[in-house]
Request: fold
Amino acid sequence: MSPLFADKDKSALMLQAPEVFTTERLILRRPRLADAEAIFEYASDPKVIHYMDYRPRTDVSEVLKFLESRPAEWESGSFSWVLTVKPDDRPIGTISCWVEDRAAGFGYLLNQKYWGQGYATEAACAVVEWAINLPEIHRVWATCDTENLASVKVLEKSGLVCEGRLRCYQIRPNISTIPRDAFMYAKVRDAS
Ligand SMILES: CC(C)(COP(=O)(O)OP(=O)(O)OC[C@H]1O[C@@H](n2cnc3c(N)ncnc32)[C@H](O)[C@@H]1OP(=O)(O)O)[C@@H](O)C(=O)NCCC(=O)NCCS
Reply:
């Protein structure tokens, strides 16, 4: 199904990811340069970026730079899709997934106009289901700040289990200069 090969030099797994996921209400597709304005709308929103490990974007050119880097990132196993609500093609959020050492990490963010309607869970379920069913992937994981309760909910509703608290794990520059605790959530294949 997915043409896969081991890069012996880096011991990295390279796999082909779907260009598109279709769920009940969403289409997840690869981002385009033309999406910059729509992505900037949420990437510049302090409320959306609050728990991220970067500051809100202040200029659309930063989003364009991010978008320009996507094709090369995709080739190296770091995938991003924008979420669009059918039949509209305008992005309302982004979900990313990166593969390393037989594990896939993922993260997501959504324009706050669309919060609370189950869209993040719907997107996360699609990506988690794809990743965990790849024979080469044994673990799908995500971390979130221990106070990010909406994200905790999304991860639990997507079938991940909390494995513990990572103490002083990551600086969230919008909150503090001191590293903050995070939860590690994962779904594993062949769990006994
Ligand atoms: C996290 C985020 C993607 C969730 O998106 P969403 O589409 O609203 O998520 P869903 O609707 O699928 O699920 C959210 C759940 O959290 C719940 N929730 C939302 N805010 C909450 C809060 N402050 N406390 C407790 N639960 C909360 C909702 O009620 C919902 O649960 P329910 O389905 O049982 O009612 C969105 O809030 C976001 O973009 N946040 C900023 C970026 C971010 O933090 N990303 C995650 C980084 S790890």
In short: The longest strand covers residues 91-100. DSSP finds five helices and ten strands in the chain.
